[in-house]
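Ligand: zinc ion. Inputs:
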Amino acid sequence: MMKRAKKSKINNKLHVKKGDRVIVISGKDKGKVGSVSKVFTAEAKVVVEGVNMITKAVKANPMAGIQGGLTKFEAPMNCSKVMLYCPSCEKATRVKYDVVNDKKVRVCKKCGEQLDV
Ligand SMILES: [Zn+2]
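Predicted complex:
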């Protein structure tokens, strides 16, 4: 009997994707707005530009041309801490889907602003 391949595909699609403008709704960066630069679907985490900055000590590695010292970079954060940001309402918003030119686009539920550019 053939063994059926296990369904390993993770399909927990996040409510945000790369390039989205989001606003932080909890934590120390609450209220900050930035765009999503990375999405980790499996972990349900996102990296938002300028948000959740952490400082990391980097060891000098002259061979690789790396200077030692402290570097600041954005750490991934749980996607539940961010919501899509509507530039028109200037706040976090819920989205609905609309079809424009046979394309599914996300629009702001409140003002109808298209959020997919
Ligand atoms: Zn809006």
